[in-house]
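Weekly structure sync - notes
Attendees: PM, LS, DV (DV joined late)
Agenda: review two folding runs queued last week.

Item 1: First target. Sequence and C-alpha coordinates pasted below for the record.
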Amino acid sequence: MSIDVAAVRLALVDVLSLSASVLVYELVPQHPTVPCVIVYPPDNINYMATRTLDIAIYSILVLVGPRDPTSQEVLEGFMSGTGDLSIRAALYADRTLGGVVSNTKLLDMTSGAYSLSVGGDDTVIGAEFRAEITA
Protein backbone atom coordinates (compact mmCIF):
# COMPACT_ATOMS: atom_id res chain seq x y z
CA MET A 1 0.00 0.00 0.00
CA SER A 2 1.25 3.50 -0.78
CA ILE A 3 0.11 6.64 0.98
CA ASP A 4 -2.48 8.89 -0.65
CA VAL A 5 -1.93 12.12 1.30
CA ALA A 6 -5.23 13.77 0.33
CA ALA A 7 -7.27 10.62 1.04
CA VAL A 8 -5.66 10.27 4.48
CA ARG A 9 -6.38 13.92 5.27
CA LEU A 10 -10.04 13.52 4.34
CA ALA A 11 -10.30 10.28 6.33
CA LEU A 12 -8.78 12.00 9.38
CA VAL A 13 -11.23 14.88 9.00
CA ASP A 14 -14.08 12.37 8.85
CA VAL A 15 -13.12 10.46 12.01
CA LEU A 16 -12.29 13.66 13.90
CA SER A 17 -15.70 15.20 13.25
CA LEU A 18 -16.40 14.60 16.92
CA SER A 19 -19.19 17.04 17.63
CA ALA A 20 -21.49 19.31 15.67
CA SER A 21 -20.20 22.20 17.80
CA VAL A 22 -16.55 21.68 16.76
CA LEU A 23 -15.54 22.60 13.23
CA VAL A 24 -13.01 20.25 11.59
CA TYR A 25 -11.27 21.99 8.70
CA GLU A 26 -10.59 19.97 5.54
CA LEU A 27 -7.82 22.41 4.57
CA VAL A 28 -5.62 24.70 6.67
CA PRO A 29 -7.69 27.87 7.21
CA GLN A 30 -6.37 31.41 6.96
CA HIS A 31 -8.53 32.58 9.90
CA PRO A 32 -9.79 29.65 11.99
CA THR A 33 -12.94 29.88 14.06
CA VAL A 34 -12.62 28.28 17.51
CA PRO A 35 -13.23 25.70 18.76
CA CYS A 36 -11.81 23.79 15.83
CA VAL A 37 -9.64 20.91 14.70
CA ILE A 38 -7.10 21.40 11.89
CA VAL A 39 -5.41 18.49 10.10
CA TYR A 40 -2.06 19.59 8.70
CA PRO A 41 -0.17 17.91 5.84
CA PRO A 42 2.29 15.27 7.03
CA ASP A 43 5.42 16.50 8.81
CA ASN A 44 7.32 13.51 7.54
CA ILE A 45 6.77 10.65 5.11
CA ASN A 46 9.02 7.60 5.12
CA TYR A 47 8.35 6.03 1.73
CA MET A 48 8.67 2.28 1.84
CA ALA A 49 9.47 2.22 5.54
CA THR A 50 9.17 -1.51 5.05
CA ARG A 51 9.13 -3.18 1.66
CA THR A 52 5.50 -2.32 0.98
CA LEU A 53 4.42 0.31 3.54
CA ASP A 54 4.78 4.07 3.84
CA ILE A 55 4.68 5.81 7.23
CA ALA A 56 3.58 9.44 7.57
CA ILE A 57 3.40 11.67 10.65
CA TYR A 58 0.37 13.99 10.67
CA SER A 59 -0.16 16.93 13.04
CA ILE A 60 -3.66 17.56 14.35
CA LEU A 61 -4.13 20.96 15.97
CA VAL A 62 -7.01 21.61 18.33
CA LEU A 63 -7.82 25.25 19.18
CA VAL A 64 -10.50 25.84 21.81
CA GLY A 65 -10.69 29.48 22.89
CA PRO A 66 -9.26 32.14 25.16
CA ARG A 67 -7.43 31.19 28.30
CA ASP A 68 -10.26 30.70 30.78
CA PRO A 69 -11.67 27.83 32.88
CA THR A 70 -14.34 26.90 30.31
CA SER A 71 -11.78 26.65 27.50
CA GLN A 72 -9.51 24.58 29.72
CA GLU A 73 -12.33 22.12 30.43
CA VAL A 74 -13.07 21.78 26.70
CA LEU A 75 -9.36 21.27 25.95
CA GLU A 76 -9.16 18.57 28.62
CA GLY A 77 -12.00 16.78 26.82
CA PHE A 78 -9.89 16.64 23.64
CA MET A 79 -6.85 15.49 25.63
CA SER A 80 -8.70 12.76 27.50
CA GLY A 81 -8.30 9.14 26.47
CA THR A 82 -12.07 8.65 26.41
CA GLY A 83 -15.21 10.68 25.87
CA ASP A 84 -17.09 12.48 23.12
CA LEU A 85 -14.30 14.97 22.34
CA SER A 86 -11.33 12.61 22.80
CA ILE A 87 -8.91 12.72 19.87
CA ARG A 88 -7.47 9.38 20.99
CA ALA A 89 -10.85 7.68 21.15
CA ALA A 90 -11.81 9.04 17.72
CA LEU A 91 -8.60 7.82 16.06
CA TYR A 92 -8.70 4.42 17.76
CA ALA A 93 -12.38 3.77 16.96
CA ASP A 94 -11.28 2.82 13.44
CA ARG A 95 -7.52 2.57 13.14
CA THR A 96 -7.76 1.96 9.38
CA LEU A 97 -9.64 5.25 8.84
CA GLY A 98 -12.35 3.49 6.87
CA GLY A 99 -9.88 1.28 5.02
CA VAL A 100 -7.75 4.16 3.69
CA VAL A 101 -4.67 3.12 5.73
CA SER A 102 -3.25 0.02 7.38
CA ASN A 103 -2.94 1.50 10.87
CA THR A 104 -3.17 4.71 12.89
CA LYS A 105 -1.19 5.26 16.08
CA LEU A 106 -1.39 8.38 18.25
CA LEU A 107 2.18 9.25 19.20
CA ASP A 108 1.94 12.21 21.57
CA MET A 109 0.33 15.53 22.46
CA THR A 110 1.66 18.91 23.50
CA SER A 111 -0.44 21.84 24.62
CA GLY A 112 0.08 25.57 24.71
CA ALA A 113 -1.12 29.00 23.65
CA TYR A 114 -1.53 29.77 19.96
CA SER A 115 -1.96 33.08 18.16
CA LEU A 116 -4.68 33.15 15.50
CA SER A 117 -3.23 36.16 13.66
CA VAL A 118 -0.89 39.08 14.15
CA GLY A 119 -2.16 41.94 16.26
CA GLY A 120 -4.82 42.16 18.90
CA ASP A 121 -5.41 39.80 21.78
CA ASP A 122 -6.29 36.71 19.80
CA THR A 123 -4.35 34.10 21.74
CA VAL A 124 -6.18 30.84 22.37
CA ILE A 125 -5.25 27.63 24.15
CA GLY A 126 -4.99 24.38 22.29
CA ALA A 127 -3.07 21.18 21.77
CA GLU A 128 -1.15 19.52 18.97
CA PHE A 129 -1.43 15.76 18.48
CA ARG A 130 0.90 13.71 16.30
CA ALA A 131 -0.47 10.61 14.59
CA GLU A 132 1.59 7.98 12.82
CA ILE A 133 -0.22 6.71 9.74
CA THR A 134 0.89 3.48 8.09
CA ALA A 135 -0.33 2.99 4.53
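Item 2: Second target, run right after the first with the same settings.
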Amino acid sequence: EAAQAQMEADPGPVEAPLTGDAASTMLSQIAGIAGAMHADAKLCDPNVSDAQLTEARNELRREFTGMGGDARTFDDEFMSAYSKTTTQFTEAAPAQQKQMCDELEAMASQTPPPPAN
Protein backbone atom coordinates (compact mmCIF):
# COMPACT_ATOMS: atom_id res chain seq x y z
CA GLU A 1 0.00 0.00 0.00
CA ALA A 2 2.82 2.40 0.82
CA ALA A 3 4.43 1.81 -2.57
CA GLN A 4 1.09 2.34 -4.31
CA ALA A 5 0.56 5.60 -2.41
CA GLN A 6 4.06 6.78 -3.37
CA MET A 7 3.45 5.96 -7.04
CA GLU A 8 0.19 7.88 -7.01
CA ALA A 9 1.82 10.88 -5.29
CA ASP A 10 4.75 11.00 -7.72
CA PRO A 11 3.69 12.85 -10.87
CA GLY A 12 6.64 11.39 -12.79
CA PRO A 13 9.06 13.30 -14.96
CA VAL A 14 8.05 16.77 -16.00
CA GLU A 15 8.44 17.36 -19.70
CA ALA A 16 9.82 20.80 -20.40
CA PRO A 17 12.03 22.11 -23.15
CA LEU A 18 15.70 22.10 -22.29
CA THR A 19 17.46 25.41 -22.45
CA GLY A 20 20.86 26.81 -21.63
CA ASP A 21 23.65 24.54 -20.45
CA ALA A 22 21.46 21.44 -20.13
CA ALA A 23 20.35 21.68 -23.76
CA SER A 24 23.88 22.38 -24.94
CA THR A 25 25.23 19.37 -23.05
CA MET A 26 22.49 17.10 -24.34
CA LEU A 27 22.99 18.20 -27.94
CA SER A 28 26.76 17.71 -27.67
CA GLN A 29 26.20 14.18 -26.35
CA ILE A 30 23.82 13.40 -29.21
CA ALA A 31 26.38 14.53 -31.77
CA GLY A 32 29.09 12.50 -30.03
CA ILE A 33 26.96 9.37 -30.00
CA ALA A 34 26.22 9.87 -33.68
CA GLY A 35 29.93 10.17 -34.47
CA ALA A 36 30.81 7.05 -32.50
CA MET A 37 28.06 5.01 -34.13
CA HIS A 38 29.07 6.32 -37.56
CA ALA A 39 32.64 5.11 -36.98
CA ASP A 40 31.40 1.74 -35.74
CA ALA A 41 29.18 1.32 -38.79
CA LYS A 42 32.06 2.15 -41.13
CA LEU A 43 34.46 -0.19 -39.33
CA CYS A 44 32.07 -3.08 -38.72
CA ASP A 45 29.93 -3.28 -41.86
CA PRO A 46 31.79 -3.38 -45.18
CA ASN A 47 28.42 -3.30 -46.98
CA VAL A 48 27.72 0.26 -45.85
CA SER A 49 28.86 2.68 -48.54
CA ASP A 50 30.47 6.05 -47.97
CA ALA A 51 27.46 7.62 -49.70
CA GLN A 52 25.09 5.98 -47.20
CA LEU A 53 27.23 7.15 -44.31
CA THR A 54 27.40 10.69 -45.68
CA GLU A 55 23.63 10.82 -46.15
CA ALA A 56 23.07 9.50 -42.62
CA ARG A 57 25.45 12.12 -41.21
CA ASN A 58 23.74 14.91 -43.15
CA GLU A 59 20.33 13.77 -41.90
CA LEU A 60 21.61 13.69 -38.32
CA ARG A 61 23.04 17.21 -38.75
CA ARG A 62 19.65 18.43 -40.02
CA GLU A 63 17.89 16.87 -37.05
CA PHE A 64 20.50 18.32 -34.68
CA THR A 65 20.06 21.85 -36.00
CA GLY A 66 16.29 21.34 -35.94
CA MET A 67 16.55 20.70 -32.19
CA GLY A 68 18.31 24.02 -31.78
CA GLY A 69 21.90 22.85 -32.14
CA ASP A 70 24.63 24.62 -34.05
CA ALA A 71 25.98 22.84 -37.17
CA ARG A 72 29.57 23.63 -36.18
CA THR A 73 29.03 22.10 -32.73
CA PHE A 74 27.59 19.01 -34.39
CA ASP A 75 30.56 18.70 -36.73
CA ASP A 76 33.10 19.23 -33.93
CA GLU A 77 31.50 16.74 -31.52
CA PHE A 78 30.78 14.24 -34.29
CA MET A 79 34.36 14.25 -35.59
CA SER A 80 35.85 14.11 -32.11
CA ALA A 81 33.84 11.00 -31.23
CA TYR A 82 34.38 9.50 -34.69
CA SER A 83 38.16 9.86 -34.36
CA LYS A 84 38.22 8.54 -30.79
CA THR A 85 36.11 5.50 -31.69
CA THR A 86 38.20 4.76 -34.78
CA THR A 87 41.39 4.91 -32.72
CA GLN A 88 39.94 2.68 -30.00
CA PHE A 89 38.81 0.17 -32.62
CA THR A 90 42.10 0.04 -34.53
CA GLU A 91 44.10 -0.32 -31.32
CA ALA A 92 41.83 -3.06 -29.94
CA ALA A 93 42.53 -6.77 -30.15
CA PRO A 94 40.43 -8.69 -32.68
CA ALA A 95 38.20 -10.09 -29.91
CA GLN A 96 37.50 -6.57 -28.66
CA GLN A 97 36.77 -5.40 -32.22
CA LYS A 98 34.27 -8.23 -32.60
CA GLN A 99 32.63 -7.25 -29.31
CA MET A 100 32.32 -3.62 -30.47
CA CYS A 101 30.72 -4.75 -33.72
CA ASP A 102 28.40 -7.18 -31.91
CA GLU A 103 27.26 -4.38 -29.60
CA LEU A 104 26.55 -2.12 -32.58
CA GLU A 105 24.59 -4.89 -34.29
CA ALA A 106 22.59 -5.50 -31.11
CA MET A 107 21.72 -1.81 -30.84
CA ALA A 108 20.78 -1.63 -34.51
CA SER A 109 18.50 -4.65 -34.26
CA GLN A 110 16.51 -3.26 -31.34
CA THR A 111 13.12 -2.13 -32.47
CA PRO A 112 11.73 1.04 -30.97
CA PRO A 113 8.62 0.66 -28.83
CA PRO A 114 5.31 1.40 -30.58
CA PRO A 115 4.04 4.95 -30.16
CA ALA A 116 1.70 5.49 -27.20
CA ASN A 117 -1.88 6.21 -28.18
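Discussion on item 2: The helical segments are 2-9, 20-44, 50-66, 71-91, 94-109.
Action: LS to circulate a short write-up before next sync.
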